Amino acid sequence: MEFLDLGKHCSEKTCKQLDFLPLKCDACEQDFCKDHFTYAGHKCPFAFKKDVQVPVCPLCNVPIPIKRGAIADVVVGEHMDSHCTNNPGTKNKIFTYQCSKEGCRKKEMLRLACVQCHGNFCIRHRHPLDHDCRAGSCAVNRAGWKVK
């Protein structure tokens, strides 16, 4: 009972707890304990001024502005249906580089170009001996040496 002038009582009507580290609500400027300092914790009447949340599109990560009173899920759904740049209906192809070897239909994610003929090949046919490269002036044996 020595420190009666320290701390403040919680402004919540049902609490009135003496708190030595009270938190002040930035909307209604009242002091609250740790259990009631959130807008929802003390049912702040001015929360609408400060508690503004902007929904973000889950596909393109763009913030979507909404008008007061509008339902965020409906606005995000309309954005995804009409204005979204990352439409899930259009898939970006990952494997775009097709092998140049005759009869091979494999596609690769990265371009594997032959140093001699500059053709694009899959992992299996990337070496000059594997795709029967004839672009160089001299052939190359299995060890990688030029054959004259």
UniProtKB/TrEMBL annotation:
Classification via SUPFAM superfamilies: AN1-like Zinc finger
InterPro entries listed in its UniProt record: AN1-like_Znf (IPR035896), Znf-C2H2_ZFAND2A/B (IPR057357), Znf_AN1 (IPR000058)
All copies of domain AN1-type, residue ranges: 4-52, 93-141
Transferase is among the record's keywords: no
Domain of life: Eukaryota
Cellular component, GO, one term: endoplasmic reticulum
Pfam families, alphabetized: zf-AN1, zf-C2H2_ZFAND2
GO biological process, alphabetically ordered: proteasome-mediated ubiquitin-dependent protein catabolic process; protein targeting to ER
Keyword tags: Metal-binding, Repeat, Zinc, Zinc-finger
GO terms of molecular function: zinc ion binding
Name under which the protein is recorded: AN1-type zinc finger protein 2A isoform X2
Record organism: Octodon degus (Degu)
